[in-house]
Amino acid sequence: MRVSTLDGVPALAAKLIDAGLIGGGAFSFGGPDLVIFNSGGPVTHLAQHSILCGPSNKRIIVKQPENKKVVSSNKPMNGEIEIIYDKTPFIAEVEEWRHGCWYHLDIISATSITELLEKLNQLTPNEMFNDGSKKHIPTGPFWAGALSYDMIQWTQPISLQSIPKSGKIITILWLIEDFIIYSKNDEDYTVFGSNKEWKKRVEMILSRGNISCELPPIKINNSKEISDISDLDHIKKINEIKSSITDGIFYQVNFGRFWTGELVEEPFTIFQRLTLENPAPFSLFLEAPDLGLAIASCSPETLLRCNQGKLYTAPIKGTVNRGKNKSEDLAMIASMIADIKERSEHRMLVDLMRNDLSAVCKVGSVNISRFDVESYANVHHLVSHIEGELIDGKSSYDALNSIFPGGSITGCPRTMVCGVIDEIENKNRSFWTGSAGWFQPSSGDCSWNILIRTLEATRVGKIWHGSVGAGGGITIRSEPGNEVKETIWKSQAIRKACAWLPQDFDNSNSGNLEKTSLEIENRFLYPNPNSINIITSIDDLTPQLSNQVLLIDNLDSFTLNIAHAVAGLGFKVNVINGRDNQANKLAESDEIIDLLQKLAPSHIILGPGPGRPNDSKITMKIANLALHELIKIPILGVCLGHQALGLNSGYDLIKDPFGAVHGTPVMCQNDGSGLFKISNKSNSYVRYNSLLITGDVKEEMAPNIFDENGAIMGLRHKSLPIHSVQFHPESIGSSNGIKIFMAFLQLQSDA
Questions:
Q1: Helix (H, G, I), strand (E, B) or coil at 486
Q2: CB count, 10 Å around CB of 358?
Q3: Active-site annotation holder among 58, 184, 237, 317
C-alpha cells in the first residue's frame, strides 16, 4: 500500500506535536488548540508564506444567541424580503488558558464584525516582532481563526429562518503571540514571539533539518456518506432558481449542497492528506479539542487582504475541469474564456466586489489589477484581482464587514440572494463559505480567505463526524445537469480524503498549479474625485450649495460603483436607501418634495435593483413627480430606475422574450440624441435585467437606444432633463459607459 511523504509546514506541525510544542502536549506553553495556515503549491503572488501558530493563551468564542427566531411569511424566491438594520447584539466569550484548562474571563457584546474586532484591540499586546519587510505576514501579536457564514446575521440587513441552534459556535478566534513563518521563496523558517523557551526549542528542531514525515495509507471507511439532497432534487432546485431569475428577482445565486458522514481518521490527518492531494494557496487547519470542533480547508480564494491601508480581494467565478494532458488543459482554458456564461458570471462578481470595496475605499482607488486563469489540482478558475485604498476613518474591520460573505459564494444582488439561499437551502451553512484568516490590531493588516473546499468536523464522544459543502453559481444560462456534475467534482477531493469515496473515484483530471494572464476589460481613472456619503437616516441629510447628486439605492450590489463614477467626475454623492421603511413613508406622502427642496440636489439618479419598480415606492414616486414637472431636477434612471420612468410614462413591463441577460455586454445602437450626443452610435454595454419596457412609443418620453433585438435600452424626455438606460454604464464590461454619466451631469436643473 502507498505511503506518502509529507514535508513543509504540515510535516513541521506533526514534529512539533510529537515534541509537545503544539497540541495536547504543549499545555505548559498554552492551550492544545491548533491553528495552521498552509500555502500550498508553487510560489505565486498569492502563495508566498505559511504560518504555523504556537499555543494560544487566549481565545474568543461566539455562539448562536438564544434569541427567539422570528417566523416570516416572506418568500425571497418571489422577491419578498424585509430589510432590518437594527441588529440584536451577539456575545463573544473571552477565555484564558490557565492551569491546564480554558477558563471564562470576560464577555464582549457586539452588533457587527467591525465592533467585535475593534474590541479585541484592547486584549492584544502592542509588541513588534519583525520589521514588516515581508508583506502579508504579521509583525506582532495577532488574532486568527474562522467566521462562519452564519455571521451574515450581523452583516446583511435581513433576518434568517434557517439559523443555527442556540449555543452553536459561529466564530472562534485565538490570540497568537508565538508563531513560525515559512517563506516559500527562501524555503526557510523564522520563529517569532515572546516566549523565549518555546522559540528556543522550536529553533532546535528546525536546526536538525529533515522536516518531513510519513503518512500511512488511508483507512477504509465502512460508513456511508449522506447527501442532504439527491441529484434530481438538485436539478429541481436549479430550475426553481432559474425561474426566479426569469422573473427579475435576482441575477445569480450560489446554491450549495452537503455531504455528511463518519470519519475514520483524525481531522489533522485528513488535512495532511489534502495538502498533498489538493494543494491550494489558502489551506488551513483549526482545531479546538475541548469543543470537539475542527476545520480542514484547501481553499484557493482570497476574500480580503489589507497591507498598510491597501485592500485586496481576488474573487473566483468561472470554472472548468482539468484536461487529461497539457493540450487538453489549454483547450479547456480556451473554452472557459470563450464561454458566455462563465465570463458573464465572472463579470457580475467583479462588479459586485468593486461595489463592496467602494463602501470603504477612496474614490478612484478601486480598480482591477490583474485578470487570470488560475489552475488548481482538479479545476481551472477565472480570477480577478481588485485593489483599493482605505478612506480616512475606515479600517480593515469595516472592509471585512462590508465584503462578508464573499460574492462568489452568495450571488447578486447579495442581500436579496442571501435571503434566497436561506429559503432554498433550508439549513444553516455553518463554516462552509464563511472565512478564515488573521488580523493584527496594531497595524490593521489582515488576510482572510473564503472557506470553500472545506471539511467541518465535530466530535461526539470519541467519534468524529464530517460535513462537506459544495455548490456553484446559478445563472439564467446554467445547465442543471452540468451544475450538478460541477458540484460533485468540486467536492470530490475532500470526500476522498474523508474516505467516503473510493480512492479510484475520479470525476475530474488533475494537474499542476499554474497561472495564465488575461486582458483586463476596463480600468476606471477619475480626474477630479469628490466624496460619497452613505446616509442611514434622512435626518442626517444637509443641503449642499452645488454639485450634489442624490442616488437612490434600490438594494442593488452595483450602486456604489455608480456613486464612485459620479464622485470621480467631481460631484458629491449622497446615497439613500430606497427600500427601507423610512423611504416607504416618504413615498406615501408629499414629504419627498419638501425634502428635495431642502436638499436642493443638482441631479438625481434612480438606481438599479432586483425585482420590479413597484418594489421601490420612492423610486416610482420620484419618477412620477418628475414626469409631472413637480420635481424640476435632472433625473437619470438606471435599470430598475429606467423601468420606473417607463412605467410612469405609459409603457408596459414584460419579461424579455429573448431571455434574461446578466453580466453580458450587448451591442446597442443609439440615435445620437439625449445623453448619446457625445457617444458613438454603436457601443457595447453590460445588461443585468430580465424585464423590459415595451409598447407604443410615447411622444413625451421616447426611446433613443436599442439592443440587437430591437428592445428599448434607453429613454429621453422631449423637453425635460429626464433620461434613462436599461443597461449598467458603470459595469467593468461597458465601453464608454462613463461618458453617459458625464453627459447627464452636464445637464442643468430647471428649478
A1: helix
A2: 25
A3: 317
pLDDT of residue 69: 63
Active site residue 317: yes
Catalytic site includes residue 301: yes
Beta pairing class for 532-535 and 572-577: parallel
Predicted local distance difference test score (pLDDT) of residue 251: 93
Stretches where the chain sits below pLDDT 70 are: 1-3, 46, 68-71, 131-135, 507-509, 538-546, 749-751
Looking at CATH, the fold of the domain delimited by 532-745 is given as: Rossmann fold (3.40.50)
Instruction: State phi, psi for 644 to the nearest 5 degrees.
Output: -65, -45
Print burial letters for 5-20: b (CB count within 10 Å at least 16), e (below 16).
ebebbbbbbbbbbeee
Answer whether 388's CB lies under 8 Å from 329's CB.
no
| CB 430, CB 150: distance < 8 Å | yes
- Do the Cβ atoms of 583 and 551 come closer than 8 Å? no
* The predicted structure's pLDDT at residue 527: 77
How far, in Å, are 293, 309, 442, 565 from residue 155 at the CA level? 24, 22, 24, 25
CA 41, distance to chain mean position in Å, is 24
Whole-number Å distance between alpha carbons of 567 and 631: 23
For residue 61, what are the contacts with CB-CB under 8 A and spacing of at least 6? 92, 93, 95, 169, 171, 172, 291
Residue 560 in 3-state DSSP? Answer: helix
Give the fold, CATH level 3, of 4-518: Anthranilate synthase (3.60.120)
Domain boundaries, the chain: 4-518, 532-745
pTM above 0.90, yes or no: yes
Which residues are CB-neighbours of 647 under 8 A, at least 6 positions away? 613, 620, 623, 653, 693
| Predicted pLDDT at 540 | 65
Half-sphere exposure of 362 (CA within 13 A, CB side): 15
DSSP letter string over 344-372? HHHHHHHHHHHHHHHTTB-TT--EEEEEE
Using DSSP's 3-state secondary structure scheme, residue 273 falls into helix
Burial class (CB in 10 A: 0-12, 13-18, 19+), 168: middle
Phi-psi domain of 607 (left: phi exceeds 0; alpha: psi -120 through 50; beta: other): beta
Q: Which residues contact 99 (CB under 8 A, 6 or more apart)?
A: none
Burial (CB count <10 Å: 0-12, 13-18, 19+), residue 291: middle
- Among the listed residues 301, 342, 387, 486, the single catalytic one is 301
The full DSSP string for 89-139 is -EEEEEEEEETTEEEEEEEEEESSHHHHHHHHGGGS-----S-S-STTS-S
Alpha helix (H) ranges present in 359-479? 396-403, 414-425
DSSP state of 682: E
CB atoms within 10 A of CB 454: 28
